């Protein structure tokens, strides 16, 4: 996506016009314009020159956003430059307006003091009002330039309404001044007096001043919506200390290259992403993840730019610099999301596109109708001007983008990154969340869960023997035993004659004693295993744990159970999802027994076991037939499933390819951020609905009131000045309402509501096929492929351990048997 800065836009009609113009350019596949950030995202093969030309032809300016060399330039791009200019304009306008109001209302209506020169000199009073109004109009000339320029391009915008309203008031007042001059010259002061009430100079000036007030308040509020993004940019260090030829040199951050060696002292920010090559420290990563507890880092660990080195002195090698750092990628994600458009915004855009021409038409009709009803030109014009100045397309245009920007910022502050506005809107609508087991529900690393000594030895003695033999092993489960032993403060003894034996076993000699370790089948060949011990082993296996048996001189000394343990927050997160009306499904490649044990602990609604890495995508496809699906995963093999799901959510500690494939990235490896992301999405969508409601209802009530529809019913008559004040406040109210999202507690489940379930329930016939002849995972794949090829078969799960396959659907038993037999295996029964 190429991003452009767009200048000259003042309301939603402008952004709709620019979007429409660029979308017509050959080669443009998609275009979204953000009024909030004055930016445009364009995808396709069209050249920047063609795109800029299309924007300029529409009456606006555009320039390609250059590669950001420093974070300062990015920060500067978001700096609130509009508010100071508007503030200066407003103060100067008010100075002239106060004097104008003194002449037009203070003297005329309440008889306030004026020098004798002005007594009964109505022409002089009128001329002073004329000059003061011209001064205010010159100060706010941008409304007229932008308004009439857009009218010339047949794309009227909000500035057009203001320019027409103020201009009409001024022109009619000038006509009244000439008429009054003629009357006074020919008939005296008494003849001229009644023309004083035909002046609308104060309305012409007041409209401009009040709209400027609204614009300033809106600009200030819009500036606050990008606070989260600006806060991220301020985190980026400006310098780094690099080491060359043993000499430490402080350089600008832009000069750091990949492969450079840099040092970070305690209390300093880490300048770029890198890997520690010397030293250790506790690093505070709250800037990126929102997690306040520092993480211990040592040699070989990765560190990220903008995190804080809290304790030790570390030397690192730069791995990602400039726009490739984690911080820069986060800033880019949040910025890109602001440049995209949520589906709900398209409704407001369509309305905004025809809104201004419709308002101008209504204003003209209003004037004509009142004239036909016999009212004076002044009265009819006042009604028409009121219609022009009360109408506000800005509130409609801002309703969605301000809420999206604030929601995105809230997510970024809490380590939840929405890549697009679409993902922020759609996340709250999911009915099903599919969770990959390993690394998502569980830690993704085996841990020792149970230590069961046998034969009167102690736990520490059992662990010491296991530590000594497993230290030589390269098996993944050995790591869990080593970690546990080190945490217990044990030391490994040096063993001799170490061997990795067939059948998942280890053997070694320690001080003349023969140590062995392995699974039950291996242990039964080494020692006598009692039924009681076998029963304990079976119970551990039923809980999803892997029991490892250790023997010494042909005698069992104990069992150590190892398992991929559930993350501490997983059960709570799953309960929260269920309380939100979401069906939680666990996907795993484990056998059914292990899967059921983990699923039961986690509390999921449905377990799909025996899913091969390349089978997750097909499972997601079948789940999508029941409702809107979010897939949560962290591995490379999760990428196809993340892409296939309606919403892909990547755990931040996972693989880069998974993060690239996802719509939402969780910087922390916490499952509790999944319900938080959905909760934030729902709150943002609710806020957008509120904004759109008020924007629509304001215009639905305001335009008829301004046109004078209620005069005959209630006697309500709206002065153009009050219409301008109402217009100013409408946009301010919408933006202020969006800022309320900053107070939203995304991790609080107190206000969670179940959405009306749209999951399609279907009665499934499930069959269990007992199969002989499967020896490995390749066999499992062959059987699964054969069964999935049958018409009428839905889900297929094949278990090597249980030597069976479960299928859903209405396929005939004979057809199922033939498919398995043709694949080279034997069916022993179907239940």
State the gist of this model:
With 831 residues, the protein is an alpha+beta fold.
Write up what this structure looks like.
The chain has a seven-stranded mixed sheet with strand order 14-26-25-24-15-22-23, with helices on both faces. The protein has a six-stranded antiparallel sheet with strand order 6-5-7-13-8-11, with no helix packed on it. The chain has a six-stranded antiparallel sheet with strand order 16-21-20-19-18-17, sandwiched between helices. The protein has 831 residues and is of the alpha+beta class. The two termini are 54 Å apart. 50% of the residues lie in helices and 20% in strands. Mean pLDDT is 82; it is low at 67-74. The longest helix is centred in the C-terminal third of the chain and has 35 residues, at 673-707. The chain contains 31 helices and 30 strands. Helix 6 (141-152) crosses helix 7 (158-187) and helix 15 (393-413) runs antiparallel to helix 27. The radius of gyration is 36 Å and the shape is elongated.
Query: Can you list the strand order of the major beta sheet?
Result: 14-26-25-24-15-22-23
Main structural class = alpha+beta
Distance between the termini: 54 Å
The parts where pLDDT drops under 50 for at least 5 residues are 67-74
Mean pLDDT: 82
Rg, please? 36 Å
The biggest beta sheet reads: 7 strands, mixed
Shape: elongated
Proportion of beta-strand residues? 15-25%
| Share in helix | 40-55%
Number of strands: 30
Total number of helical segments? 31
């Amino acid at each position: 996506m190429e991003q452009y800065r767009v200048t000259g836009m003042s309301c939603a009609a402008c952004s709709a016009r620019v979007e429409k113009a660029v979308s017509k350019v050959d080669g443009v596949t998609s275009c979204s314009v953000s009024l909030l950030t004055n930016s445009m995202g364009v995808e396709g093969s069209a050249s920047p020159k063609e795109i800029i030309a299309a924007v300029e032809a529409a009456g606006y300016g555009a320039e390609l956003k250059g590669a950001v060399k420093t974070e300062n330039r990015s920060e500067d791009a978001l700096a609130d430059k509009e508010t100071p200019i508007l503030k200066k304009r407003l103060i100067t306008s008010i100075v002239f307006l106060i004097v104008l109001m003194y002449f037009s209302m203070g003297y005329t209506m309440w008889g306030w003091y004026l020098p004798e020169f002005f007594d009964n000199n109505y022409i002089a009073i009128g001329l002073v009002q004329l000059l003061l109004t011209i001064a205010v109009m010159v100060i706010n000339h941008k409304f007229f330039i932008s308004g009439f320029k857009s009218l010339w391009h047949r794309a009227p915008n909000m500035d057009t309404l203001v320019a027409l309203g103020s201009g009409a008031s001024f022109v009619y007042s000038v006509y009244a001044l000439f008429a009054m001059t003629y009357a006074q010259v020919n008939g005296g002061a008494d003849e001229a007096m009644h023309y004083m009430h035909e002046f609308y100079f104060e309305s012409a000036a007041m409209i401009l001043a009040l709209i400027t007030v609204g614009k300033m308040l809106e600009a200030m509020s819009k500036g606050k919506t990008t606070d989260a993004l600006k806060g991220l940019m301020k985190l980026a260090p400006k310098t780094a200390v690099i080491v060359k030829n043993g000499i430490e040199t402080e350089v600008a951050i832009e000069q750091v290259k990949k492969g450079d060696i840099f040092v970070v002292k305690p209390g300093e920010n880490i300048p770029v992403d890198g890997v520690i090559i010397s030293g250790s420290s506790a690093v505070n990563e709250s800037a990126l993840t929102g997690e306040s507890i520092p993480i211990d880092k040592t040699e070989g660990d990765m560190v990220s730019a903008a995190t804080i080195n809290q304790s030790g002195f570390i030397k690192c090698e730069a791995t990602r610099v400039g726009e490739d750092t984690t911080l820069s990628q986060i800033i880019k994600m949040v910025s890109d999301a602001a440049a995209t458009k949520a589906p709900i915004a398209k409704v407001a855009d369509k309305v905004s596109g025809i809104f201004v021409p419709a308002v101008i038409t209504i204003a003209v009709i209003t004037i004509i109708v009142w004239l036909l009803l016999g009212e004076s030109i002044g009265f009819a014009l006042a009604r028409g001007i009121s219609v022009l100045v009360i109408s506000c397309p800005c509130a409609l245009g801002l309703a969605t983008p301000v809420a999206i920007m604030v929601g995105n910022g809230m997510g970024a502050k809490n380590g939840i990154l929405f890549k697009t506005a679409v993902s922020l809107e759609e996340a709250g609508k999911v009915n099903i969340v599919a969770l990959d087991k390993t690394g998502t529900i569980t830690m993704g690393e085996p841990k020792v869960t149970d230590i069961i000594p046998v034969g009167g030895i102690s736990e520490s003695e059992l662990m010491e023997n296991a530590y000594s033999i497993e230290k030589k092993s390269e098996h993944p489960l050995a790591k869990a035993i080593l970690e546990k032993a080190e945490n217990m403060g044990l030391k490994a003894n040096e063993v001799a004659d170490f061997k990795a034996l067939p059948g998942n076993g280890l053997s070694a000699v320690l001080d003349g004693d023969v140590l062995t370790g392995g699974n039950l089948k291996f242990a039964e060949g080494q020692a006598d295993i009692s039924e009681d011990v076998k029963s304990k082993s079976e119970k551990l296996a039923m809980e999803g744990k892997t029991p490892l048996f250790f023997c010494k001189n042909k005698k069992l000394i104990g069992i150590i159970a190892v398992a991929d343990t559930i993350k501490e927050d997983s059960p709570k997160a799953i309960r929260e999802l269920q309380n939100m009306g979401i069906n939680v499904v666990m996907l795993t490649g484990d056998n059914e027994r292990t899967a059921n044990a983990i699923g039961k602990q986690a509390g999921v609604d449905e377990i799909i076991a025996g899913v091969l890495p390349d089978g997750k995508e097909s499972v997601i496809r079948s789940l999508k037939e029941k409702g809107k699906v979010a897939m949560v995963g962290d591995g490379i093999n999760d990428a196809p499933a993340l892409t296939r799901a309606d919403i892909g959510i990547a755990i931040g500690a996972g693989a880069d390819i998974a993060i690239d494939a996802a719509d939402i990235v969780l910087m922390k490896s916490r499952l509790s951020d999944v319900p938080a992301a959905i909760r934030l999405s729902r709150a943002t969508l609710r806020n957008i609905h509120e904004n759109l409601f008020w924007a629509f209802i304001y215009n639905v009530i305001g335009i008829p009131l301004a046109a004078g529809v209620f005069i005959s019913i209630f006697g309500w008559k709206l002065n153009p000045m009050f219409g301008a004040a109402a217009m100013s406040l409408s946009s301010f109210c919408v933006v202020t309402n969006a800022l309320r999202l900053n107070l939203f507690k995304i991790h609080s489940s107190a206000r969670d509501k179940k959405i009306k379930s749209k999951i399609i329930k279907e009665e499934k016939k499930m069959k269990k096929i007992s199969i002989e002849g499967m020896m490995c995972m390749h066999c499992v794949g062959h059987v699964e492929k054969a069964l999935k090829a049958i018409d009428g078969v839905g889900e297929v799960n094949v278990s090597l351990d249980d030597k069976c396959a479960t299928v859903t659907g209405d396929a005939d038993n004979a057809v199922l048997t033939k498919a398995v037999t043709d694949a080279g295996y034997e069916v022993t029964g179907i239940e």
